[in-house]
């Protein structure tokens, strides 16, 4: 004999909600548990099922003193259902209107842009022009180094680099001169030090 199938979550919610609707009374948790077990809901699941109904605003809960009281009247359920039906009817009507508007826009677009042979040829020509434009842009990038403005910018940059190099050479010579005066008699040691650090006292200015 196959094992007895338990209640689904939806079945548990429906059966517990029946307890409230059939009695139209107010309960404490012990009453809910007792009546739920009679409906086939195991006691361990009662609190979770009850909380899910509260979260969905199908059952009300109010704390009075140290106890929580639970209730759900049939009239409230019908009002809630009617409100939801009206909401969905409004959304459906809005969706239908948008669908009609979209259909009209598509029809208008097709009428303004018929799939004629001339239109097909124009689209082909447009795509060819786009490909040609991309090719020309690639060729232009290859010749950009020869562009007068680019060449002038490179020339200015080179001139600035030359001035900076000569300025550093001036500073190097000034440092050499100061060191020779400061450490007179130790010229060979100075020469070795500058040579090891890449400073050449015979370096020439860049023309």
Automatic annotation (TrEMBL):
<dbReference type="Pfam" id="PF18517">
    <property type="entry name" value="LZ3wCH"/>
</dbReference>
<comment type="function">
    <text>Required for proper homologous chromosome pairing and efficient cross-over and intragenic recombination during meiosis.</text>
</comment>
<dbReference type="InterPro" id="IPR005647">
    <property type="entry name" value="Mnd1"/>
</dbReference>
<feature type="coiled-coil region">
    <location>
        <begin position="78"/>
        <end position="146"/>
    </location>
</feature>
<comment type="similarity">
    <text>Belongs to the MND1 family.</text>
</comment>
<dbReference type="GO" id="GO:0007131">
    <property type="term" value="P:reciprocal meiotic recombination"/>
</dbReference>
<dbReference type="InterPro" id="IPR040661">
    <property type="entry name" value="LZ3wCH"/>
</dbReference>
<protein>
    <recommendedName>
        <fullName>Meiotic nuclear division protein 1 homolog</fullName>
    </recommendedName>
</protein>
<dbReference type="GO" id="GO:0003690">
    <property type="term" value="F:double-stranded DNA binding"/>
</dbReference>
<dbReference type="InterPro" id="IPR040453">
    <property type="entry name" value="Mnd1_HTH"/>
</dbReference>
<keyword id="KW-0539">Nucleus</keyword>
<keyword id="KW-0175">Coiled coil</keyword>
<dbReference type="GO" id="GO:0005634">
    <property type="term" value="C:nucleus"/>
</dbReference>
<feature type="domain" description="Mnd1 HTH">
    <location>
        <begin position="16"/>
        <end position="74"/>
    </location>
</feature>
<dbReference type="Pfam" id="PF03962">
    <property type="entry name" value="Mnd1"/>
</dbReference>
<feature type="domain" description="Leucine zipper with capping helix">
    <location>
        <begin position="149"/>
        <end position="200"/>
    </location>
</feature>
